[in-house]
């Protein structure tokens, strides 16, 4: 009886250890694990393109993190993926700031640059433009016909939503009935089924939409695209070394392809200020 009870306790302890180990593998870096002088932290946010798990995102960025660690002082770079945009911002603005930030919600990155001292390193070379989509049979032909229509946008904190609102103001579209859904794919799905008369999506979804026979009636102004920022605490020498290491990835396969980037271009603070002037944030 006592032996059985001891075996049961041992079994439970073993299971708990196994669960903890599995969790550690699934999430290589939780934000609370910000360490030590021999480690750097890469904070990642993919915004609202897909409902990916933390472990999938950590795996996706592992090769890039290893590359950066090997390039600069043989440091260990720990990947900290955050799905929720607001939580991502909270982590970026916390006392334990990451050395590197990569994000797709460029309007939020721009606020980190303007208001919190983050330093732009590189960005995707091509500009970001969101697209206004309608179904192939829609009577809506251009921006002027969006007034009073049901318009669906992704997450209210996303860059797509921010530039969409900016373009609606710029075009003088009066009183559209704007609502939000979390993911870009959901916008296209609801326009397709008629739940929304028009929607705004990122360039990838827009391309797929056109290939499937849907129509794009207009685009937002071009703005700065996905970007990598350095901590406000990074020295000028460190910023230069990080930038050079990122630009040295151009032409390589592997880590860049894994995160959906063909190459990097040098970033300029003015681009982020211009974005926020456009969005009015």
Explain this structure.
This protein has helices at residues 2-26, 54-60, 62-71, 85-92, 106-116, 159-171, 184-193, 203-211, 236-247, 255-258, 269-279, and strands spanning 39-45, 76-81, 100-103, 119-123, 131-134, 150-153, 177-180, 198-201, 215-219, 227-230, 265-266. The chain is α/β, with parallel strands linked by helices. The chain has two domains: 11-126 and 224-279, Cypl, domain I (D-Maltodextrin-Binding Protein, domain 2); 131-219, D-Maltodextrin-Binding Protein, domain 2 (3-Layer(aba) Sandwich), CATH 3.40.190.10. The N and C termini lie far apart (68 Å). The relative contact order is 0.17.
What is the residue-averaged pLDDT? Answer: 85
Radius of gyration: 22 Å
Q: Between the first and last Cα atoms, what is the distance in angstroms?
A: 68 Å
CATH topology of the largest domain: D-Maltodextrin-Binding Protein, domain 2
Question: Strand order within the widest sheet?
Answer: 2-1-3-10-4-11
Give the count of structural domains: 2
Strand residues, percent? 15-25%
Number of helices: 11
Element order: H for helix, E for strand: HEHHEHEHEEEHEHEHEEHHEH
Quantity of strands, as a count? 11
Task: Tell me the major beta sheet.
Answer: 6 strands, mixed
Report low-confidence residues grouped into runs of 5 or more: 1-37
Helix and strand content put the structural class at alpha/beta
Helix content: 40-55%
Shape: elongated
């Amino acid at each position: 009886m006592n032996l059985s009870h001891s075996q049961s306790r041992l079994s439970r302890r073993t299971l708990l250890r196994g669960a903890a180990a599995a969790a550690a593998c699934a999430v290589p870096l939780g934000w609370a694990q910000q360490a030590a002088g021999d480690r750097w932290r890469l904070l990642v946010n993919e915004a609202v393109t897909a409902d990916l798990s933390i472990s999938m995102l950590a795996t996706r960025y592992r090769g890039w993190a290893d590359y950066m660690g090997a390039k600069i002082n043989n440091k260990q770079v720990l990947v900290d993926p955050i799905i929720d945009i607001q939580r991502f911002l909270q982590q970026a603005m916390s006392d334990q700031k990451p050395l590197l930030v990569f994000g797709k919600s460029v309007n939020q990155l721009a606020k980190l640059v303007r208001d919190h001292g983050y330093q732009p390193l590189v960005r995707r070379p091509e500009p970001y433009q969101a697209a206004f989509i309608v179904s192939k049979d829609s009577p809506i032909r251009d921006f002027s016909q969006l007034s009073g229509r049901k318009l669906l946008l992704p997450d209210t904190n996303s860059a797509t939503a921010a530039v969409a609102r900016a373009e609606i103001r710029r075009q003088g579209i009066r009183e559209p009935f704007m609502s939000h859904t979390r993911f870009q794919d959901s916008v296209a799905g609801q326009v397709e089924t008629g739940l929304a008369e028009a929607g705004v999506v990122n360039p990838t979804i827009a391309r797929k939409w056109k290939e499937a026979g849907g129509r794009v009636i207009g685009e937002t102004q071009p703005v700065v695209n996905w970007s990598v920022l350095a901590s406000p605490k990074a020295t000028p020498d460190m910023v230069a070394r990080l930038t050079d290491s990122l630009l040295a990835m151009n032409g390589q396969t592997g880590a860049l392809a894994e995160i959906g980037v063909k190459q990097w271009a040098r970033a300029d603070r003015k681009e982020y200020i211009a974005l926020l002037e456009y969005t009015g944030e």
